[in-house]
Design a protein that fits this description.
It is built from 12 helices and 2 strands, in the order αααααααββααααα. It is mostly helical and 239 residues long.
């Protein structure tokens, strides 16, 4: 029988506490953004394409880690029986999604810099005209290649069905790091994701306003705001 105490400590309690609150909020933001990108030209920009991919990566990372810890308790025999695949997958996922999400943060930072500082450069204009599939490729493929080359260890196994602790070869480059941060996995894994919904809400007023409107169903107000924005732009051009 797998010991619950052996797989959960105070860091897991903090993680699942935040997870229960933030995951529904983040998923709502993701669905609203996905819907807005199909109906509102304001959200069909490169920045929101990157933000959409980044939100998806956060949601997958949070969900995978939660599934991993819960599955260790509910289906330990299945996990141990399929350890040749699952042990390495769960172990490597932690590093994979840190790299992927860090890449997303870097892309959004570079995009903002180009828009604000180099808005008229040819490179900046090309970035602004990027298609969604190109954004998807740039977001996922380089990070996935880097993960596959430097942060994939297929030799990971579990010690026993009772403990399900990772057994790592001493020569692996990740061993020392794993030993040092093992107890802080939940917080390290969740930190990048937990702060994202708050930054999205605080620093993207247009998106926040649209989400609030979609939730409350104030369609008339949206139309009025859109008309006001169009009128303001026309007035600026005329002057």
């Amino acid at each position: 029988m797998v010991s619950i105490a052996g797989h959960f400590n105070w860091t897991h309690a903090v993680y699942f506490g935040f997870f229960a609150f933030i995951m529904p909020v983040y998923f709502l933001i993701f669905v609203c953004l996905l819907k807005l990108r199909t109906s509102d030209a304001l959200f069909k920009t490169t920045f929101y394409a990157i933000l959409l991919q980044h939100s998806l990566a956060d949601i997958i990372a949070m969900g995978l880690y939660a599934f991993q810890k819960i599955s260790y308790i509910l289906i330990p025999e299945f996990i141990y029986t399929n350890q040749e695949t699952l042990a390495s997958f769960f172990y490597n996922c932690f590093f994979w999604f840190i790299i992927i999400r860090s890449n997303g943060v870097a892309l959004m930072t570079i995009h903002r810099y180009l828009i604000i500082v180099k808005s008229n450069s040819n490179f900046s204009l090309a970035i602004q005209r990027s298609r969604s599939f190109l954004v998807w490729i740039i977001y996922w493929i380089p990070a996935a290649f880097f993960d596959g080359v430097f942060y994939s260890d297929p030799t990971i196994r579990f010690d026993s069905v009772e403990n399900l602790k990772n057994v790592v070869k001493p020569e692996t480059t990740l061993t020392e790091m794993m030993v040092y941060i093992r107890d802080f996995f939940p917080l390290a894994n969740g930190l990048l994701s937990f702060i994202s919904p708050f930054t999205i809400i605080l620093f993207n007023k247009d998106l926040t306003r649209r989400i609030r409107t979609m939730i409350t169903g104030q369609k008339i107000r949206v139309l009025q705001e859109n008309q006001s924005e169009v009128s303001a732009k026309i007035s600026v051009r005329m002057t």
